[in-house]
Amino acid sequence: MGTVLVTERDNLGVVVIEVTGDVDPAAAAELRSALVRTLRPTGPTRVVIDLRAAGNIVPEGIGAVVASVDVATDNGISMTVRSAAPEVAEELLVAGLPRGCVTPSARV
Hints:
By secondary structure, this protein is of the alpha/beta class. Helices cover 36% and strands 36% of the residues. It has a single domain (3-104), classed as Transcription Regulator spoIIAA (2-Layer Sandwich), CATH 3.30.750.24. The protein has a five-stranded mixed sheet, covered by helices on one side. Helix 1 runs parallel beside helix 2. Residues 13-108 form the STAS domain. Pfam families: STAS_2.
């Protein structure tokens, strides 16, 4: 099971959500909850989902990330996904995440 860690950097208005391990349905629910708590009108100016240490992500986790981009945009929050494994980056793009929001890792 994966874990989701939220690290807030108040002085810059940036929240980093770090995902480690495989994201099974339970971890996907944890990720969705972290995104809901973070993406509020009085929230940060920027959210970064760091997938550097993430493994496989179930479709529910992919869906949570993609849906959160609309919420972030509605609340004036910039959101990016960084260091996604190439196959995860492709899944995010196929699911509708704008290309400019995802940065794949160099992993092969």
